[in-house]
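Incident log, structure service

09:12 report received: a user says their structure output differs between two submissions of the same chain.
09:20 pulled the input from the user's history:
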Amino acid sequence: MTLISERRKVVAIHEAGHALFDWLRGCYYEVEITLDGTQLSGLLTHRHYLLHKQDAVQSMICTWGGIIAEARYTGEDVWDVSYSGGKYDYESILYLADKFFPEDNRAVDKSYVFSSKIVNRFWKRTQKIAALLEVRDAIDSEDVLHALGSYNYEFYQNRILNPALKVMNAPTIEEEIRSHCRLT
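09:34 re-ran on a clean worker, output below:
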């Protein structure tokens, strides 16, 4: 196996770790792997707006997904990946924690622990997404849906998102709506 093909596998699994969370949420996204000279890199593009703590929690655990998947695949320590291939992801997580959870100095760790559980639970599906990326330069949510099938959003909300929000001390979507209704 060449260095480029091994690096492509690593980038594919990293990007698949991100894409897993968008698949669980049922939202539209695109993933691509590009070769810039001899450097392979990946990019996940999705349309998310960070308006509330719920959005920040989802973005943090999705961002951790790439770092955690790469670390699991390569056998590297997750913190080593955070400072190398996942450096920009980790900086994004730090930014979100500082912006949305300034009162919680454990927000980064909490989101990491939660994301780890999800990546481990859905590891085989993460590998399937990566396998698509290994043979194609770009995939989108339709390709992943075709390979994995759909995921029940209500189940995602009740079994994944709401527990994550609780761990992060963020209001659930229903609580946020109720609080806005009381204000008007």
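09:41 both user submissions now match this output. Likely a transient worker issue. Closing.
09:42 reviewer note: The two ends are 62 Å apart (CA to CA). The chain has a mean pLDDT of 82.
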